[in-house]
């Protein structure tokens, strides 16, 4: 199919997962530094991207991508180190690769969390101040800006269930975090535009919510409200799902802030979710049901490329003035194998689904194997294999497949 001339073929990473270079002088601690990961592993070195970014940009140039989505470390900026991102952005531009900057990819500074974190409204304003600092330095060179990555995961896993840092299991009492993340997004949009940012959007995680039976439609709708629309509605329509609105600490003017116009909308897609009505005693209005009829990634996630098309269609059906859509993350974890067949098949099917949905760009998660949050180094998402002992980078067969796909 014919793609627009400005279509973005990219890869994505995040600061905490690849940078390493954690010293007290160079980066303040984040909530993830002390959070337990698989086998007691940590990200103090990770992929050592902080020191090896030139090698990694050279890999991207060889891959043929024209965009790179990275995140800026809020803890590193608080320690006064913006110079790394200056150097990274310049290196990308020299390679002909458009920088796509995410300001927050889950690495809340410990000092911010100790002050209340995302449960505290003041954090949204602190985030906007941080956004302004970064934008004043980089806005003249960054092509696209994403203030907050996947606020649904921060809220649901970090504050509601405790699976992710900061490890709070508050269930519905976590909902203020959702609103404050959305407010932080809106305030940051204003700060970025004031500093001259050219294009500002978002990157929300979306999942189709499938009822396990016709009788479970209400459970699926409730889950979709919490995972999808709690974060899309305030940005794209200035509202919240009705049954959640009274649970959120919304003040006058907040929804006008969250609904600041966007230049694009980023979709992070990995898999659908199946739901049924809750069992007696379950405080939630749904229960998750395993999806068994599809193959799975190494992480155990069902592989359903059509779910990506379903997500994009649901967004366009729900919002009249939907901005251009980019797939800002899409990828899979599998055990390393020379043929890399499963990863290639996954990417081939998901790229096809994305193009059929008429998106404006596709970013593979991820360029490199990395530190995968609570799973440590047990999961490998990279187009490039990383030997964590030697830091040697070896492009996988999927790297070469993606290079050829881009070059068609």
Automatic annotation (TrEMBL):
SUPFAM superfamilies per UniProt: (Trans)glycosidases
GO molecular function, one term: beta-glucosidase activity
GO cellular component: cytosol
The keyword ATP-binding is annotated on this UniProt entry: no
InterPro entries recorded: GH, GH_1_N_CS, Glyco_hydro_1
Top-level taxon of the source organism: Bacteria
UniProtKB keywords: Glycosidase, Hydrolase
A Pfam family: Glyco_hydro_1
GO biological process, one term: carbohydrate catabolic process
Similarity field: Belongs to the glycosyl hydrolase 1 family.
Protein name per Swiss-Prot or TrEMBL: Glycosyl hydrolase family protein
Organism for this UniProt entry: Saccharothrix syringae
